[in-house]
Amino acid sequence: MQVSSINNVKIYNLSHGKSLPEVRHSWIANVQRRIELIQDFDMPTVCTAIKVSRDGQYILAAGTYKPRIRCYDTCQLSLKFERCLDSDVVTFDILSDDYSKLVFLHIDRYVEFHSQHGHYYKTRIPKFGRDFSYHYPSCDLYFVGASSEIYRLNLEQGRFLNSLQTDATQINACDINPVHHLFAAGTLEGRVECWDPRMRTRVALLDCALSSVTEGTEVEGLPSVSALRFNSSLGMAVGTTTGQVLLYDLRSSHPLLVKDHYYGLPIHSLHFHEQLDLVLSADSKIIKMWHRDNGKIFSSIEPPTNINDVCVCPGSGMIFTANEDPKMSTFYIPALGPAPRWCSFLDNLTEELEENPESTVYDDYKFVTRKDLETLGLTHLIGSPLLRAYMHGFFMDIRLYHKVKTMANPFAYEEYRKEKIRQKIEESRVQRVQLKKLPKVNKELAIKLMEEVEDEDALSVKKTKKGTTSILRDDRFKVMFENPDYQVDEQSEEFRLLNPIVSKVGQKRRKQLQRLAEQDGDDEEEEVEGRASSEEEESSDDDKSWVEEVRVQRRLLWAENNARRFKERKQEDRDARLRPRFYQIKDGEEFRSFGDVARKQKMQKASLEQRVKREESLGMLDLADTAVGSKQLTFTLKKVSRSSAIMGCRPCSGKCLIIMVYQLKHRSWQNLILHKPVSPL
Predict the structure, then answer these.
(1) How far apart are alpha carbons 395 and 364 in whole angstroms?
(2) Range of the structural domain that residue 54 is part of
(3) How high is the pLDDT of residue 679?
(4) Assigned domain for 492 exists
(5) What are the φ/ψ torsions at residue 390 (nearest 5 degrees)?
(6) Is 529 a member of any domain?
(7) What residues does the Nucleolar protein 10-like N-terminal domain cover (predicted)?
């Protein structure tokens, strides 16, 4: 539900969807604030017309796609039935007090009748219809459309009667007075023709097109009549295609009041509110409520989508609209009247809202940028339900923001308090004698601006720039010299790349000031020949110089970045060396010391000969014969040529095994000879 106040008139949009960011922890509050007055109060695509039965119990709406009619029962606050149609509905009317007798005018010239059980009968009119009205005393239906004739269909006899011939080429709208049953038809030429159904003759003709053009009214094209509505016995409202509403007394041919919507859109709905003596007029953009006597605006409703039709619930402040949107809107205005009987709980609800006004839409959320998230250390929440992406930042709950802010900077409140005290003290010192002093923020910029002002005063330039002379005293730029957040970082990459350009622009400006001063001092002298070319040469040299300075700054920035990255890598290597190492002890091993582990790693890299000698020296290697016999291998390293290695060992008649071994210590290949084992004695 959305609450708006226009001209101090509260308007409750009961069909408004959720406007808060969809955050997981706030779904309970959203459900509590949501009001679904009637279930499934929508259409698949678009709703074209909506009406309420005379007994106030049923709401009927026509829409598309596919073309259909839906009936809602207000006693059950839900859908009663739905019927699909063959074509789209231009308009429809309820002939009975409930939904038992319905008439539909289709876009394909068909007129369809429905009874309580469903479809009853279908007939066709000669021309495409745009509107129709029902005359209750004679049971006649009057159809108007793309023709000069008004077709009459008698429902009692079940046949067409003689048509009424008008002077118009086409007729857009019609209505019948509920008191004396005068029939009125609005034409394409901007006229209103009034007919007496008893005599079947025209009794009056009003020229509304000429009367709609008043002083200060801009009209594009001929104002045609687009809407008609009678009020009591003598009142009538006429809406035009150019956005004007004319109020007439049937006893006069001149309008009592002309109200302009100032949108230039056709008026398609007109209603009267008898209790407050108001007129409700609507185009596709806005619904305006204004006083019938003086035209003073009472309030207005501007939905987010275009309006197709407006229906006012009789005797209440409830308004239904058919929109260019699947959802049909429901507005409740307590100033127009009480809530209908079937939703009387709305009065209590609005009273509670008046006592406890709700906060604005985004008061419970804080908008933060990605830089703010990095400062708070919440970048890991991006993509989670706690942050809702919006434009160039995110929405987060204000309670979470304050909690994280307090944890990130626990002394923020004390700093804020000291800053406020300092500001109060500075404000109290304003009345004292002020000395010329520099601000605490952006001192260099202030000095530069002061020097420029002094140069202009010294050179006595007639045409000074107001922006430069008043920027230090302008309240719009006061925060730039007071708030530390606006401090210019001269070591930043952006400043160092832009500073050469800005400095050159300042130098050019000073040269121009000097040149202007010289011209003012010697106005009668003629311009020296070739002066323009020298100025061009100077400007080109200046351009080359600042380009070179920018290149130098780029090189320096590149070198600084490389040095910083090298320093970071060096620090990472140092940290890696100082970082403790962890070793895994396998099952069955006994940990003695870290030196033992180092010796094991060293022995794994040693050769087989070194390991055997070490084991023999330590007494760990013991070879002995047994009773069943044993074999012993003797390893002897001997340098032999490649030819002898291929031929084999002579003492063993070439039956020994020769293995090529690469020694890392000598970085050379050696032959390892496995001699033929000697059989035991």
Answers:
(1) 10
(2) 2-20+30-355
(3) 47
(4) no
(5) -155, 120
(6) no
(7) 1-356
The pLDDT score that the predictor gives to residue 52 is: 94
Question: Do 192 and 308 sit in the same domain of this protein?
Answer: yes
3-state SS class at 303: coil
Query: With a cut of 70, which residues of the chain have pLDDT below it?
Result: 17-34, 216, 218, 353-363, 429-438, 453-473, 496, 499-546, 577-598, 619-681
Domain-terminating residue out of 355, 384, 413: 355
Residue 260 lies in a domain: yes
Do 269 and 418 fall into the same domain? no
According to the model, what pLDDT value does residue 229 have?
Answer: 94
Contact 609, 635 (CB under 8 A): yes
Length in residues, the chain: 681
DSSP 3-state of 272: strand
Q: Give the model's pLDDT for residue 426.
A: 75
Residue 255 lies in a domain: yes
- Position 643 scores a pLDDT of 42
Residue 142 bridge partners (DSSP): 133, 152
The verdict on 348 and 365 lying in the same domain is no
Q: Which structure tokens are listed for 297?
A: 């605006």
170, 189 contact by CB (below 8 A) = no
Long-range pairs of 207-215 with CB within 8 A, sequence gap ≥ 24: 207/253, 208/238, 208/240, 208/246, 208/255, 209/240, 211/246, 211/254, 211/255, 211/258, 212/240, 212/242, 212/244, 212/246, 212/255, 212/258, 214/258, 214/260
| 142 to 126, 151, 390, 407: CA distances (angstroms) | 13, 6, 54, 76
Consecutive H or E run containing 397? strand 393-397
Does 235 lie in the same domain as 141?
yes
Query: What is the reported pLDDT for 530?
Result: 43
Angle at CA of residue 43, ends 37 and 47, nearest 5°: 100
Overall domain count for the chain? 2
Residue in the structure block whose two tokens are 């959802």: 327
Domain end (from 377, 404, 423): 423
Q: Which amino acid is at 527?
A: E
| Residue 495 neighbours by CB under 8 Å, 6+ apart | 488, 489
**DSSP code for 324:** S
Task: Please report where in the chains the tokens 């509260």 appear, as a residue.
Answer: 10
Residues 64, 151 within the same domain: yes
Residue with tokens 């070739």: 530
The domain spanning residue 149 has which CATH number?
A: 2.130.10.10
Contact 65, 324 (CB under 8 A): no
Q: 349, 342, 267: which is closest to 59 by C-alpha?
A: 342
Q: Where are the beta strands (DSSP E) in 53-158?
A: 58-64, 68-73, 78-84, 89-94, 102-106, 110-114, 119-124, 129-135, 140-145, 149-154
Q: How many helices (H) and strands (E) does the chain have?
A: 13, 35
56 φ/ψ angles, rounded to the nearest 5 degrees: 75, 10
Strand order in the sheet with 159-165: 129-135, 140-145, 149-154, 159-165
Same domain, 261 and 375: no
In this structure, the answer to whether residues 348 and 415 fall within a common structural domain is no
CA distances 628 to 623, 624, 625, 631, 679, Å, are 14, 12, 8, 11, 13
- Mean pLDDT across the chain: 78
Q: Count the neighbouring beta carbons within 10 Å of the beta carbon of residue 378.
A: 20
